[in-house]
Design goal:
This protein is mainly β. The chain contains three helices and nine strands, in the order E-H-H-E-H-E-E-E-E-E-E-E.
Length: about 210
């Protein structure tokens, strides 16, 4: 069976709970809902390369170019959505008043639950979770060097090829992950919703404080 070549309809989504950087940007009047729904960029991240998604999922649509360093949290978007990449200093300057990204209080090793709202869900390969390294610099934008080299969790559908199983590979409204057990203090979590039938993932970011 040949892989279909039709261009899929664009469909989007964002996390509604707990508050992401995108949700906070909406609250502060910096972004609209639709912009936070569309923080999409290449799904091969943290690789720098476009092209086939890694085995055993290489029959999925090829990835477009993943986000550049400094623009990771917006999925590579450099328009108004760049605000989610801002440091506290940049954010304060943009708002014209002192402001810091609010921190979600978490415990090491706890279950972290998220709720998504989808405009209309794509055929979903799964979800990937990354986190900042110990000693990362919150005064700098998030780069690959600021993140742990490997995801701390992944939740993938294993069916291949996707086009024979698309009805089963549904986007999850509610899902959860076990947070790393060895973190302390402020960290940034990057959550990717990875789409099987386009070249993109949708990026969401959370500031957490491990107690």
């Amino acid at each position: 069976m040949n892989k279909p070549q039709t261009q899929p309809e664009l469909r989007h989504g964002r996390v509604t709970s707990p508050p992401s950087r995108g949700a906070i940007a909406i609250e502060q009047g910096l972004l609209g809902d639709w912009q936070v729904n569309e923080m999409e960029g290449g799904k091969n991240f943290p690789s720098l390369s476009a092209g086939p998604f890694p085995a055993p999922y290489q029959t999925d649509s090829d990835s477009v170019i993943p986000p550049a360093d400094g623009y990771i949290l917006s999925g590579g978007k450099v328009d108004q959505r760049d605000c989610v990449n801002f440091t506290n200093e940049e954010l304060s300057k943009k708002l014209g008043r002192p402001f810091a990204w609010p921190l979600l209080n978490v415990d090491p090793g706890q279950t972290f639950k998220v709720t998504w709202k989808y405009t209309a869900p794509h055929v979903t390969r799964g979800y990937r979770w990354l986190i900042t390294k110990d000693g990362w610099d919150s005064n700098q934008r998030i780069t690959r060097a600021q993140l742990e080299a490997k995801p701390f969790a992944e939740d993938f559908y294993t069916q291949v090829p996707y086009y024979s199983h698309s009805a089963e590979m549904v986007a999850k409204v509610n899902h959860e992950v076990k947070l790393p057990a060895n973190k302390k203090g402020h960290h940034v979590i990057v959550l990717m919703w990875i789409v099987a039938n386009t070249g993109n993932a949708f990026y969401q970011a959370f500031d957490v404080d491990f107690k």
